[in-house]
């Protein structure tokens, strides 16, 4: 029973995470487009490349390639395929974990081998810089009408491993019940 509950909670959390990723704003990400350069064209395979001159630092990337033919497999040296359309004309790639950082001004050639069916291949790839974080975290509101933001003070106490005393709290404010406790953080730390 307990295992089923944990599995159910994990499934709900995973669903909520995936659903929230669909809402990630993409408008603030830098993107570049490159045309496919085909080399070593064979009857059912080819070698290709998408060449970019990066205009800013890239810390992780995602590329969406579109082809005019059915591409049945791709082996990209600088990235991994994460998905493709059922007709094989659209492929999504991400950086390999050891090839994710490129400084501005770098020329990057995303080379690959592919198998295809149909006429001579052509295409393009849109490269997105995943190093842009489109989310912002607002400052915690100070709604207790004091000059101190207790949310920030408590957060700094909870997130630090360094022992702290009551020195960060104002000495004039009493705790509930009217008493003052100079070593409250030590008492809490002892219970956790």
From TrEMBL:
GO MF annotation: an example: hydrolase activity, hydrolyzing O-glycosyl compounds
Spans annotated as Disordered: 161-192
Keywords: Signal
Keyword Disulfide bond attributed: no
Gene3D superfamilies on file: 2.60.40.290
InterPro entries: CBM2/CBM3_carb-bd_dom_sf (IPR008965), CBM2_carb-bd_dom_sf (IPR012291)
Signal peptide per UniProt: 1-19
Name of the protein in question: Uncharacterized protein
Organism of derivation: Candidula unifasciata
């Amino acid at each position: 029973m307990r295992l089923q509950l944990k599995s159910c909670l994990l499934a709900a959390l995973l669903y909520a995470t995936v659903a929230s990723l669909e809402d990630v704003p993409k408008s603030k990400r830098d993107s570049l487009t490159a045309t496919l350069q085909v080399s070593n064209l064979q009857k059912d395979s080819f070698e290709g490349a998408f060449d970019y001159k990066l205009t800013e630092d890239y810390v992780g990337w995602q590329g969406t390639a579109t082809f005019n033919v059915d591409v049945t497999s791709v082996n990209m040296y600088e990235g991994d395929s994460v998905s493709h359309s059922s007709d094989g004309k659209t492929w999504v790639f991400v950086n390999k974990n050891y090839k994710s950082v490129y400084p501005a001004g770098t020329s990057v050639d995303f080379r690959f081998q592919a198998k295809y069916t149909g006429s001579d291949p052509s295409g393009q790839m849109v490269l997105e810089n995943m190093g842009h974080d489109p989310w912002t975290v607002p400052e915690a509101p100070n709604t207790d009408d004091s000059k101190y933001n207790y949310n920030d003070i408590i957060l700094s106490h909870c997130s630090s491993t360094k022992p702290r005393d009551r020195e960060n709290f104002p000495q004039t404010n009493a705790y509930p019940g009217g008493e003052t406790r100079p070593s409250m953080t030590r008492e809490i730390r002892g219970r956790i």
